[in-house]
Recover the amino acids of this structure.
């Protein structure tokens, strides 16, 4: 009886530790680049040459990345500023689609889970697409807001694509009209 209790405790302990490990992996920010520099006094890391950033199910590709560490806020409080022509953000969604965002500059606040896309900003998912000078995306809230440029006459543009209904393959197709006439 005691061994069954111990086995259950060990099982739940392993389950809990794997859950915490998965949560820790979700908090990791992994950066690959061709070159890295660090300004230690100001807590800024600079990454260049084909930069790839991975944070959980999110990925950013950029030409250049600045990582600003905000020590006063504790662990995992970084501001990532990715630039490119364009810099691209992708996130796998729960429904199987991919949200894709692109802009000249992407500011990703890791702690707030917020993106600010600036300069030729576009965001799209499942065929729906919005473009503007500035787009803000609150990841947890799934909230997108877009603004036009103060200079010039650019406007916010959204393209909505009709969602096609999936046909039910279990319903039999109607009979061929030619076969109906050949029932002699």
């Amino acid at each position: 009886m005691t061994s069954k209790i111990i086995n259950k405790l060990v099982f739940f302990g392993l389950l809990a530790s794997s859950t915490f490990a998965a949560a820790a992996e979700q908090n990791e920010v992994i950066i690959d680049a061709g070159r890295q520099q660090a300004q230690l006094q100001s807590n800024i890391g600079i990454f260049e040459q084909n930069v790839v950033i991975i944070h959980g199910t999110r990925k950013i590709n950029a030409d250049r990345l600045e990582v600003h560490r905000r020590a006063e806020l504790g662990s995992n409080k970084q501001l990532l500023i990715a630039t490119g022509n364009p810099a691209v953000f992708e996130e796998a969604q729960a429904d199987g689609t991919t949200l894709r965002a692109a802009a000249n500059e992407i500011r990703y606040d890791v702690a707030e889970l917020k993106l600010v896309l600036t300069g030729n900003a576009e965001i799209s998912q499942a065929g729906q697409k919005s473009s503007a000078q500035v787009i803000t995306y609150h990841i947890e809230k799934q909230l997108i807001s877009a603004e036009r440029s103060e200079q010039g006459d650019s406007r916010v543009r959204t393209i909505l694509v009709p969602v096609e209904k999936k046909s039910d393959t279990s319903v039999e197709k109607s009979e061929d009209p030619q076969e109906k006439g050949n029932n002699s």
